[in-house]
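The protein record passed on for reference:
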Amino acid sequence: MKSKKELLHLGFEFADVNGEWPRVVDIPSSTAIRRAFGSFSNYKHELTKAYIDRNGCPEWDVKGPAPGRTKTTLAREAVADVLQDSISRIGAFPPTKKPKSKKGRKDVAEMHLVISDVHVGSYTEKAMASSMSEGYNIDTFRESADTLEERINFFAGVYSSGFYVDKLVVNFLGDIVDGEAIFLGQALQVDRIITEQVVEAAHRFASMFYNWSQTFGEVEIFCVPGNHGRIGKKNELHWRSNLDYMAYLFVQQKLEKQKNIKMHISRSPNMIVEHGGTNWLLHHGDFVKGGAGGSYVPYERKMRALSSMGDLPIHFSVSGHYHTSMSTSGVNAGRIITNGSFPGANEFSVNVCNSGNTPSQRAWLFSPKKGVIHSENDIYLADRISLKPDKNGIYTEYE
């Protein structure tokens, strides 16, 4: 029986004489070829490779690599063969046992929440907001407050699946009440006078914080008044002559016997607080003029100024006022977070500011050990508005 080398030599001779690769009928020892190589296709593959290695690719082999590229082509084929062989040698991971419970070994984290721009007592008529809102009144406020309370409990459960969450930090940042004389004609757009606004707000939020103290081991509240709580014209009275400030004092009085609730009421427009080795600037946000929360520049400027004056870095800025939820990193300062609102779209935002966001409040998970935010969420308090035409093709309110 002929050896492989002899059989390949027969193929070389045939190719040199005939100018083509042999077929099954062209080699008399086809039986020996099948025994030696397994099949004629394997033989032809080996023959082609050996011939090109020795003589280069013949010009008559139109399927072969172009002249001058033989070594490159062969090198690629060799690399591909090596890779394919390596992949075939990779084994699957062995099955593992069910992981042990990590209970007691979770990272400690805090849940932070912003409550601002509640505007208790405000009245928004759907028609005056061009149907971009279902309206807002005292009943809507109560429903939204219930939704917020329930969803914070829900998110606390979600976060607790991966972290040990035993503390809630509430940033209570103003415009809790709507006021009655902040702008001309406001008294015609409220459904509660200012006294009732304060009482309603204080009672509901005191109840909310008290209920959360049953979910969390500790609740800590930081309070800064807003501009809608102002009494009198701007700069007419003392800055703390403010209905938000009054509501905060009522809430504090209501909760003073609850040992796992701490409440801090700012006596200045800015409150700087330390959490987990990072410094937080808490403010209402009404110092920003001529723009909504989408522009980070004024917030960044405020952070840099206070950092310089106070000789301390400010890593986070948290505010409300423009009813716009936003979270972004400043170019030359830390992270900037702004909050949504309870009313969402109203007459002023739609018709003057050309803005109308879905009612929401902002929350996040914070690691005091690492000084970082793990996740941020908008807690939506109502459904997104999606206008639909009636039988006359009209989307907005009419008679």
